[in-house]
Amino acid sequence: MHIDQYINDGQDPIVVEKLLLKLQDMLASASEEVTYIAVQKKPAITLFPNSIALTNKRVFICKSTKWGLATHFDIVNWQDIEDLSFKEGILGSQVTFTKHDGETLTMAYVPKDQVRKLYRAGMAALQSPSNTDGTEMPILQDAADPADELTIKLKKLKTLFERELITEAEYENKKNELLSQL
Predict the structure, then answer these.
(1) Percent of residues in the chain assigned helix, strand, coil, to nearest 5
(2) Phi and psi angles of residue 24, each rounded to the nearest 5 degrees, phi first
(3) What phi-psi label fits residue 10: left (phi over 0), alpha (psi between -120 and 50 degrees) or beta?
(4) Residue 36 CA from chain centroid, whole number
(5) Helix, strand or coil for residue 99?
(6) What are the tens digits of pLDDT across the range 3-35?
(7) How does DSSP assign 25-54, residue by residue?
């Protein structure tokens, strides 16, 4: 198992390896793949940290229970998530997934660099125009006007740039790509 791609941001390799072993049996199909893993890091010693795993189809909120002998999973499809946000604090960040029904899933004490990359990967999944099975994701706005969709995408892109989650070059390239669709 190759865990190197999941521990570039200071994630605990032991936690990541255990999580990946559990997720292998839970992935929906061969086309579902893990895109990012964030591991909680509390200010005190944390023997059994919680974690978040993103795949191209779902979000797995993984909470250790029974002194690390069991794991409770909150699993949500990307289509069921309305918004993703995070707050940076002194001792780490808190990430929140908001579902369409208003329910929120939150995890605190995620290292800042991990939560920023988690946010970037999550926003890319939320903005994806289709599921991996090729069916269109539902459009959440009333307007059928493509210009309105483009405006929404441009606003989200600008927000990513203003939060310094993408570089100016990435922003300009994507903006020009979107504007060329007019």
Answers:
(1) 35, 30, 35
(2) -55, -40
(3) left
(4) 7
(5) strand
(6) 888 888 889 888 899 899 889 888 888 889 999
(7) TT-SSTT--EEEEEE---SS--SS--EEEE
